[in-house]
Amino acid sequence: MALVPGIELLRRAYEEGYAVGSFNINNMEILQAILQAAEEEKSPVMIQTSQGAIKYAGAAYLAAMVKAGAEQVSVPVALHLDHGDDWKVALQCLRYGWTSLMYDGSHLPLEENIRETRRVVEMAHAVGVSVEGELGRISGVEEQVAVSEREAFFTDPEEAEIFVRETGVDYLAVSIGTAHGLYKGKPDLDFPRLEEIQRRVKIPIVLHGGSGVPEDQIKKAISLGVAKINIDTELRQAFLKTMREKLEENPNQLDPRKVLGPGRDAMVAVVKEKMRLFGSSGKAR
Ligand SMILES: [Zn+2]
Rounded to the nearest whole angstrom, what is the distance from the C-alpha of residue 44 to the centroid of ligand 1? Predict the structure, then answer.
């Protein structure tokens, strides 16, 4: 299928009470693993690229690869920019055919975040592309901050209402206790806050740092309006662990396919497991 706008996938997920997994890619093997899993699970899927991935692989390469991959599966696929913080990169993505953009102005004061996000929304909506905004800071687990300090960065429900109304974003990333990277302890999501945000914004909510969040918390979050869940770390782990094992088994290996191939297979299993947990399996139409 041709790529579809992100909101098409998320609106259905939001209305029907499941979440679409949005998985980061940097190369062909990761993309193929995600698309194979989506096809086997009959699940809609989002492929996302960070600005770092675009710098590494190039926007033209990534877009061509994702379009080629999407055409070979029967499930709907959206191509999303993860954590864009530069409208020029957003514009570049529009030119190359991304169908969903995140503008992350969460480091900016509210007024400025609204202004910059709205600029990207106007640009993207003009060509039928949907936009994710972020309000509240989602930390990296490597940043050692006390819980009380961490909560200072949580999304304020009242500000979220203003932000969504003023920017026109299609979906909203919130900070409610998840983090990027590997969790040291068990994450503890702030569900009353999520509930209050949802009551006020009434649009699909995006959960970043989905890797390692316990299943019961994922399900609860979906029941409260989370319709997009980002997964990166668990794919990296499966990919690299398998490749490392293959290289250790045969340090003189001269065929990269004998290392990359098993790494790709390991990622398929991880993605399928997430799709079942998120409830998106069997939802492709
Ligand atoms: Zn993120």
Answer: 20
According to DSSP, the residues that pair with 39 across neighbouring strands are none
pLDDT tens string 120-155: 999 999 999 999 999 998 877 555 555 556 777 899
Q: Which domain range does residue 253 map to?
A: 6-278
| Encoded tokens for 190 | 């702030």
pTM higher than the cut 0.90:
yes
Each residue's pLDDT tens digit, 208-258: 999 889 999 999 999 999 999 999 999 999 999 999 999 999 999 999 999
Q: Is residue 84 part of a domain?
A: yes
- CA 82 – ligand 1 centroid, Å: 7
Q: Measure the CA–CA gap between 132 and 187, rounded to whole angstroms.
A: 23
C-beta separation of 132 from 171 below 8 A: yes
Neighbours of ion ligand 1 (CB under 5 A): 208
One-letter amino acid at 31 equals L
Specify whether 82 is catalytic. Answer: yes
* Separation CA 195–CA 180 (nearest Å): 22
Q: Is residue 285 part of a domain?
A: no
Residue 22 belongs to a domain with what CATH number?
3.20.20.70
